[in-house]
Write a structure and sequence with these properties.
345 residues, alpha/beta, Rossmann fold, 2 domains
Amino acid sequence: MTKKLNKVKVERRKPVNLVPEDDFLFRDEYQKYLKQACIKKIKNVYISESKLKKFKYFRVYAKQWRMNPLKFKDKIFYFLADTKTLLFNKKTQNTINIKKAIWAIDSRSYQFFHWFTDALQRIEAADIYLNKAPVLLLPSFENFKYIEDSLNMLGIDSYVLKEGEVYFVEELILSERVSPAGNYRKLLINKISNNFTKKNKKIKNSNSYKKIWISRQGAEKRKIVNFDIIKPILENHNFEIIQFENLSFKDQVALANNCAIIGGVHGAGLTNMIFMNKNSVVIEVRSKEDSSNNCFFSLASDMEHDYYYFLAEPTSKNFYETDLYIDPALFDNFLKREKFNTFLE
């Protein structure tokens, strides 16, 4: 049996504080078409070195375990390399047999944003199989506690593959990528959100803040270079400044679910908006001229949150890697002008 997700048209709300001269930053995301995706059963699949293979040697379904699709020349290279291995590799290796499992990950699924917005969408799409087969995880995923914790919270079984082993799966449920990274199927992402928020009602958390600023000052990139000046401005506007990576996953869910406003520089921490209640507020500080990194604008729209943006000066031309300078006076006026306290009433 094959389950199909139909092609869909996605339409997004514009930022609340959009001004005409900034429209170019977002306009490519206002409307998207997501291609059809399938969840299908595949018989007799080998898995080794995080790759799916047929006949033990030939890599298949590459676009489902890679972050980026293969070019034609890469496919030829793979085929020739795999053929060479078949002909000249005399080593034999025992295989570990798995009767049934689900594949819903790629080479970057371990990252916080990609886990919650890409991998979990693929897992949710395979919902009819979740009580019959575990989700396969790569060995390195054990280094990221939020993966185990989120699956446990959702009651989803998993099976962690071991480094260097070869597996033979009699029946593999292949959940294809349901949308390009930074895009979402609204029904799926909201169902994931609802599942977490329902579970959160049972979590006891003594801390609760209405306005949270997610700090990236401990990260390697996209830090605020003048944070010593920006910090008191945030505090003056009653933002609680938190480094979410220092919290347990349950605490992250609880804090986000109980707050009304989340803000921060473009980064994985803003993914926590999926744990917020509908019609909450998301504030993203982003680089001037950056019209490419719109994943959080799109996510806020699909989650039905009010999205606000503030443009900062990048310290380099690489928008993804750059640190940012925030004009203190403009930022203070932005927080005053938008009257974010009204959302707390």
